[in-house]
Amino acid sequence: MSETIAARSEPSVQILDLRECWTHLELEQLGRLAVTVHGAAEIFPVNYLAVDGRIRFRTDPGTKLVALIINNRVTFEIDGFGDGVAWSVIVKGLAEEIDMRPAARQSVPLPVPWTSTEKGSAVEITPDSVSGRRFQLLHGPGTDLRATADSR
Predict the structure, then answer these.
(1) Residue 131 to residues 21, 87, 128, 137: CA-CA distances in angstroms?
(2) Where are the domains of the chain?
(3) How much is the pLDDT for 84?
(4) Up-side HSE of residue 102: CA atoms within 13 Å toward CB?
(5) Greater confidence, 5 or 135?
(6) Average confidence (pLDDT) over 50-72
(7) Is this structure's pTM higher than 0.90?
(8) CB atoms within 10 A of CB 127
(9) Kind and range of the H or E element at 68?
(10) Hey, which bits of 38-84 come out as E strands?
């Protein structure tokens, strides 16, 4: 019973400090990149690497890369859950294409592509801001959290 009382006395939403945000960023590999395409927000899943206070990912030439060249202000987000908590980290900053010529490429760690599609370009996000939140979940692990008729 004391665990239940202690859990209820903690705030249900906690702000993550910068160190906690970067710990999550460094441990995860999959995030979502939000860019503006033709005046509308577009979101792309990317596998990434957090290194030296920056976010790096590979991409192929296409919509995402063109959007970053036109407007390099981006938002990047990761999230996860487990052990009765969920969390989210948001990075806002400037994206810049990385020089992929062999001489320059050797000194820049990049993530290994997850797919067989050509990923001949790479992008680095330099953060302006990094923020995160942790949420105490009301239900235990394995609970189906989709809305039901009773929860609406």
Answers:
(1) 7, 11, 10, 20
(2) 13-140
(3) 84
(4) 0
(5) 135
(6) 89
(7) no
(8) 19
(9) helix 63-70
(10) 40-51, 54-59, 73-82
Class of 13-140 in CATH: mainly beta
User: Residue 19: which region, alpha, beta or left (left: phi > 0; alpha: psi -120 to 50)?
Assistant: alpha
What are the tokens at 87?
């969390």
Tokens standing for residue 121: 């370009």
Single-letter amino acid code for the residue at 58: R
Each residue of 103-133: pLDDT tens digit? Answer: 555 667 877 777 777 777 889 999 999 999 9
Mean pLDDT of the chain: 83
Per the document, the length of the chain is: 152
Q: Are 122 and 96 in contact (CB under 8 A)?
A: no
The confidence score (pLDDT) of residue 16 equals 97
Q: How far apart are the first and last CA of the chain?
A: 29
pLDDT at 87: 96
Backbone angles phi, psi at 4, to 5 degrees: -65, -45
